[in-house]
Write a structure and sequence with these properties.
The chain has about 260 residues and is α/β, with parallel strands linked by helices. It is about 30% helix and about 15% strand. The longest helix is centred in the last third of the chain and has 13 residues.
C-alpha cells in the first residue's frame, strides 16, 4: 500500500483509528499530515510517540480543532513511550499545530512535559487554545532543542505566565520568532517579556499586534529592543507621540495605528 508523502485529511469524520492506520502503513515517506477539524480527541496525544517513531521524515503535523484537550489521564504505557523517545543525530524537525483546541482542567499543563519529550518540534503553533487551568508548564518549552518559532496568537495572557515566556527567551538557543497577537497583554506582561527579549541574541521577529491596552508600554519596550529585531506592532493604538521610541528599531510594522 502506497501512502502519499503529503496527506490532507482535514474536515472529515475521522477518528484516532486513522492515526493508528498511518502509524502502521505510512512509514518514513510521510512528510506532511493534516488532520485538523476531525474529532480525534485526547487519544491522539497517546499516538504521537508512535507516529513520530514510525514517520521519521514527518515535517508538518496539523491537529487544530481536534478536541485534543478533553480530560484524560495518560496511561502508564503511553508515558513509557514518551519517556523512551530519543533524538537521533539526523532527526527531522517538525512543525506542530495544536491551535483552536480547548484543554479541560490541567490537561495542557499535564501534557506539556511529555510534548517536550518528542524533541523534534521546531515550530509550535498554539493559536486560540484555551484552558480551564493556567498553563503552568509553558516554560518547559525551552527544553525543546530545535524550537525556532512559537505562536501564541489569540490566547489569553491570563492563562499563561509572562515570566515563563521570559525564561523561554533567555534559555532557548534557537528561538527566532515569537508571536503574541491579540493576547490581552497587560503593561506588566510586556515589560516582563521584553526583559527576555533584551537578553536573547537569537530572536529576530516579535509580534505584539492587536494589544491595544499597552500602547505606551510597547512603545517604551521597542526602544530597548535589539536593533536586529523586527517588531510587529500593528493595531496597537500607537500615535505620533510614540514615534521617537522607534528610532532604534530596524523595522517596525505600525499599520493600523494613528
Amino acid at each position: 500500500m502506497t501512502i502519499p508523502s503529503r496527506l490532507d485529511l482535514a474536515s472529515n469524520r475521522l477518528t484516532v483509528a486513522t492515526l493508528d492506520f498511518l502509524c502502521q502503513h505510512a512509514g518514513p515517506t510521510l512528510t506532511k499530515l493534516c488532520m485538523s477539524n476531525n474529532n480525534l480527541g485526547p487519544m491522539a496525544l497517546q499516538r504521537l510517540p508512535d507516529l513520530f517513531s514510525a514517520c521519521t521524515s514527518l515535517k508538518t503535523l496539523e491537529l487544530s480543532s481536534c478536541d485534543l484537550g478533553d480530560y484524560m489521564l495518560l496511561d502508564n504505557t503511553t508515558i513509557e513511550k514518551y519517556n523512551q523517545m530519543r533524538l537521533d543525530d539526523d532527526a527531522v524537525p517538525v512543525e506542530l499545530d495544536i491551535s483552536q483546541n480547548h484543554f479541560d482542567g490541567d490537561m495542557l499543563s499535564g501534557w506539556t512535559p511529555y510534548l517536550v519529550k518528542l524533541g523534534r518540534i521546531q515550530k509550535l503553533q498554539c493559536r486560540g487554545i484555551t484552558t480551564d487551568s493556567p498553563w503552568d508548564t509553558l516554560g518547559l518549552l525551552s527544553d525543546l532543542p530545535f524550537l525556532t518559532s512559537l505562536d501564541l496568537d489569540d490566547t489569553a495572557a491570563s492563562s499563561w505566565s509572562a515570566s515563563d515566556l521570559r525564561d523561554i527567551l533567555q534559555k532557548s538557543i534557537h528561538l527566532e520568532r515569537l508571536s503574541l497577537c491579540n493576547c490581552y497583554l497587560t503593561p506588566q506582561d510586556v515589560t516582563t517579556i521584553c526583559q527576555g527579549v533584551a537578553v536573547s541574541s537569537y530572536l529576530r521577529w516579535l509580534s505584539l499586534s492587536n494589544n491595544r491596552r499597552v500602547n505606551l508600554t510597547i512603545a517604551q519596550a521597542v526602544n530597548d529592543m535589539n536593533s536586529d529585531l523586527t517588531a510587529n506592532t500593528c493595531d496597537c493604538g500607537l500615535t505620533s507621540q510614540h514615534h521617537p521610541a522607534f528610532c532604534q528599531c530596524r523595522n517596525i510594522g505600525d499599520t493600523g495605528n494613528l
